[in-house]
Amino acid sequence: MFIPYNRIGEGIRLLAIFIFCTFIFYTIISYVSDTIKPAEPYKEPHGKAVKVMQYTPAFEGTYKEMKRRLFDFYWYGE
Fold first, then answer.
1. pTM of the full predicted structure?
2. pLDDT at res. 2
């Protein structure tokens, strides 16, 4: 039986090039992503800007309040 070693070598070389290029592209995309996104997105804004929302981890209201907030959400589309 004939084993084509040169074809196996080409396949391994192609796989190595693919893995290397994937790593390079991932590194570039990660660097660009880290450069673009802000360091602290939830910090207080500077200047005349105001923080619009305040994070509340759990809803602490009544059913009517929750229903009103849900209605406002759908009504204003926010």
1. 0.49
2. 74
